[in-house]
Every structure is written in structure tokens, then in C-alpha cells.
Amino acid sequence: MESRGRVPAHPVSYEGVWRFTAPAVDVSVPQARRAVRDLLERQGVPVDDDILQGLLLIVSELVTNAVRHAALLSPELAVEVAVGEEWIRVSVEDNHPYRPTALVTDHAQTGGRGLLLVREITTEAGGTCDAEHTAGGGKIIWAALPLKAQP
Known about the structure:
Layout: E1 16-23, H1 28-43, H2 49-70, E2 76-83, E3 87-94, H3 114-125, E4 128-133, E5 139-146
């Protein structure tokens, strides 16, 4: 039977989900950032440069948080990159049960603003972010951004 007016859904070549693990140590921060950048380049993901730079900063912040705050209970972390036709989602998972919240801006504070920065970058790009508990008692913090900058 022929279907009229419907185009079959075919994934575009750059769509997919990739996951890698890393030790919860400082050197994993630039390595994760580089791995995500190289993956997107290798897959030919058509992401705007401003979105890419924001996404890489988000990866750095989320991996840094896992290294600084979860390493004692989670010596390994996982980074997942999911790419759809019009969006990209990055997440960092660790086995620490504490689910952080974005802190209220305190201009006297010298640290602890990473999740505020993640939320600001995500919101400005027209995306969304959140934290979720895993079935194993850990957490996943994720951010999803459009591939193209919003007008």
C-alpha cells in the first residue's frame, strides 16, 4: 500500500548516541572536551560555532563538577553525547547520590558557579538542562541545545 504525503523518516548521517568513560581526575576535563569536539567534527555535525563553544564549556563544567564533588564515591564518570537532526545533548553521569542545584549568584563567591553558567548558556541558546537520579543511585546532569543559534 502506498502512503501519500508522508516522507519516510531516515536518520541523517550525523545522528547517533556515543558514550565514553573517564577517571574522575583533573586531566579528564580537557580530554572530555577534546573528545566531544573531535566526535562532532568526525560525524560532520552541522553545529553553529557559538553553540559548539557553549556546548564545550558545558562539558568542561559538568566534568569538573564530577571530578571535584563526586570522585570520592565515583572514581569513574561517563560522558554521553546524543545528536538528533536539530539538537545535541551532552550528559555527565557519576555514582555520587547528591543532586546539585544551581546556586544563587553570590558575587563574593569565587567558585561554585558552574551550574549557573551551564543554565545560562543553555537558556541563552534556547535549550534546556536538568539533573536526574540514576537507577543505581547516582546522577546524570545534562544539557540539550539546538544545533543552530536561535534568532
